[in-house]
Design brief:
Blueprint: E1 2-3, E2 6-7, E3 9-16, H1 24-40, E4 45-50, E5 57-62, E6 67-71, H2 77-89, H3 121-135
Parallel strand pairs: 3-4
Antiparallel strand pairs: 1-2, 3-5, 5-6
Helix pairs in contact: 1-2
């Protein structure tokens, strides 16, 4: 994805075996789809590594220094293309950004505990009982 006009994905590395059956999809992708993909994405460095007797993997290297590995064992050429488009469209930042479920953000949890409707019910009952006793 381009952020501020600069593509975040710098390099794409394909690692596969020439003979293993689990690398069939990536071999098809490299022979059929990769040349057109290279032509459409000249800003990206593309490397192809062959390793004997290893399952195929896809590595995306980002400008932030982060590397996202994806296992593409027994995947078809179309599924590998989907993974590549996902790598290309992500920013490459760490996954420690979490969505909070609470609306209240605090570094220190409440000492009093959670509020509920019946939190002050006993205090209100005592005060009402005293008010009734004074009124009689």
């Amino acid at each position: 994805m381009a952020k501020y006009g600069v593509w975040m994905l710098e390099k794409l590395v394909f690692q596969y075996c020439r003979n293993d059956g689990s690398s069939q999809g990536i071999r098809e992708f490299l022979s059929q789809t990769l040349p057109t993909f290279k032509a459409k994405n000249p800003q990206m460095i593309i490397k192809v590594k062959t390793q004997a007797h290893q399952h195929p993997k896809l590595f995306g290297y980002y400008r932030s220094g982060r590397c996202k590995p994806i296992d593409v064992k027994n995947k078809s050429s179309a599924e590998i293309e989907e993974h590549i488009s996902w790598l290309r469209s992500s920013h490459g930042r760490d996954q420690d950004y979490k969505v909070t479920t609470s609306r209240h953000l605090s570094r220190n949890p409440s000492v009093q505990g959670m509020w509920s409707i019946n939190t002050f019910a006993t205090q209100l009952e005592r005060r009402n009982a005293r008010a009734l006793a004074v009124g009689k």
